[in-house]
Amino acid sequence: LLTKLDNIIDFSIIAAGKYIEECIIIRRIFREKLKCWIDLASYRLLRRIEFDMIREDLKNARYVKESNELICCVWALIQLPISIKQLADKD
Asked: Which residues form the IC97/Casc1 N-terminal domain (predicted)?
């Protein structure tokens, strides 16, 4: 759809400037919607990965998902909280 709108805007032989302006507005709105949908899908995917991660040990977690088309492997280092005493000892 974006390609079609770009072609209409860039190569249209229709002389009506209002039509081109409407296409530009539609393209802008559609891009904003696409951005929101991609952001939401990315957020949901990352939250799903976080939820399905398997705790390997105290500091490590992993996520593995396999399908016919793709294998996704994620490893994460889990930061442990540092006590105030440990911070004072480092100084």
From this structure: 1-79
Count of alpha carbons within 13 angstroms of residue 36, beta-carbon side: 6
Q: What H or E segment, with its residue span, contains residue 3?
A: helix 2-11
CA distance 7 to 27: 11
pTM: 0.59
Summarize pLDDT for 31-63 with one digit per residue, the tens: 999 999 999 999 998 898 888 888 888 888 888
Strand ranges, E, within the chain: 54-55, 60-66, 71-77
CA-closest candidate to residue 46, choices 26, 27, 63, 28: 63
